[in-house]
Amino acid sequence: MLTTSAPVTDNDGTTKTIEAALDALDFLRRHGAGLCDLLGLLAEETAFDALCDLHGQSGSDLPDVRRIRRSLRSIRAALAARSTHANDALSVRKGYCVDTSVRWYGARISDLLVAFR
Questions:
Q1: Which of 13, 69, 91, 103 qualifies as a FRET site for 84, CA 20 to 30 Å off?
Q2: What is the pTM of this model?
Q3: What are the structural domain ranges in the chain?
């Protein structure tokens, strides 16, 4: 038997998960170009594909909440898997502080994921 919990709503009836998805898309609108550059620099294909999935949801009035959450999790996992040593080596080669960017985007995406709970 498949059971699902009822969505948590605020006073005007808007579901919290939809608000979380819309917040994630707003973050993408504001910071997606930088995240795209970072994922390209890191050569993280899975995370880049997840970012493309997010971008595909950006024009939707009612986004696919599960797809957005799954994409955010994939990006966060790719960023979390990066070693500081690898980031530092890449920073030296590219002249760009990769570790700081990885940590900043990772923290923001983690914050966005908390809102889905």
A1: 69
A2: 0.82
A3: 16-114
